[in-house]
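User: Hello, can you help with two protein structures?

Assistant: Certainly.
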Amino acid sequence: MMFRDQVGVLASWFKGWNECEQTVALVSLLKRVSRTQARFLQVCLEHSLAECTELQVLEGEANNPGLISQWQGEPKERIISLVLTHLPLLKPGNTEAKSEYMRLLPRILAHTIEHGHHLEESRQLLSYALIHPATSLEDRSALALWLNHLEERAAARGDSLERPPPANSRDSGIGGGWHQQQGCENGHLLLYPSSSVPATINTVGTGGGSNTSNDRCGILAATAIS
């Protein structure tokens, strides 16, 4: 198969994924690029986004802890939409804003598990939070505890959240997000070190008797940082 055909196949898969799945896949690919490639991609992205005032406004909102704290009074559906839209734009080092997100996420997840609503959105929120460079090991460990609960809720509803993978795609190699203390190995970027991955993540989908190991909730969120 020629290179352009390979790119076409990859683009076809990419188009069929939702925005969160696309993000996790891109993070996986970024794990494999050299420092020079990473800088070139950064230049391209910064150039293309320089005049995007709408994104600049959204980014300002996403990093405003006072505004985020006001979302507590919104209906659950509205909170989920707001967090999904803004969390990816959280800047590493903004501990106040991150703390507000970390207060909202357990409320959203608890509501989902109790009522069985918004399972897909909750799965995406967990995935974003687990690969986000702004979250600490402590944050990720706390969030990882929700994964099995979310899987169990999906299984109880009989949901099949996992779409069949493309051929030869099992070795996805999904990597971690851009960590504050990146290193390099053989000219390539190192993302999350093993010490920053919560041990709880390795038990996702292994609950006794439940056939949930292929559940998209666990697959996307767990492999996002493995």
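That covers the first. Now for the second protein you mentioned:
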Amino acid sequence: MGATNSNPSNEYNYPNPISDVQDRSRALGNIRHPSNVYNYPNRISNIQDRSRALGNTPDLSERQVTSSSIAESKQKIQLKSLKELSNDFKRLLDPESSCSTDVTLKCGGVSIRAHKIILSVRSPVFAAMFGNPMKESFKNEVNITDINVSTLRALLFFMYTGKTSNLTASSSEDLLFAADKYQVQDLKTVCCYFLKETVSLQNVWRVLVLGDMHSEDLKSFAVDYICNKCGEFSVLENTQEWKGLRKERSDLAMELLESLVKYRDKKLKR
């Protein structure tokens, strides 16, 4: 048999598998083109859209109402807590239920047990008294001679509870003196507010003197009150109040007179 001669032109052409697959894919439309890529929906956007449709997403006004309600509830809880705290400290003043007292306040023949730590926190005067080598610190006893027993009890009641009870014109004056002496600023403010609320032409002169002694703000209030109500010095000069002030507190009388002049000049310029 003769040998078979291989001729390149007669070789069997095997198909290219890669090209064949690509051709078939194109024919079937399975090759993805960027323009044919399936667009998956945005799930977050869809959920938000559905929530809005169902009314599950609160609008801005609803959120504001909710925030306001939370703030009000929080404030009520805080006020209730402060009230309970005040009542707890009030019990510390009761001789029968109080405990751990470590100092005695003596006033008008009466002895009142108290707590150094509370007095020190509430009053810089007591803090200096108990924090330095003074006899009150060693003896654990304080003699109080310049205020009466009822005023001392009212002072302690405020220092322990932050409250006052049954203020009158007389008690507010005494408490203002005690609060100023022991530097209980909040109590000074309470007393001054009470005196402002109850001021009249009959007691404003007393308020003026109290302000000059204990509170610049109360003094300014009384001066303004007199200027607004009286206006002219001729209205004042023959009153017993002015004569008494000029005799007993001449410096304060001159301050008031200067304020009256300034008030009149300011009124004329309008």
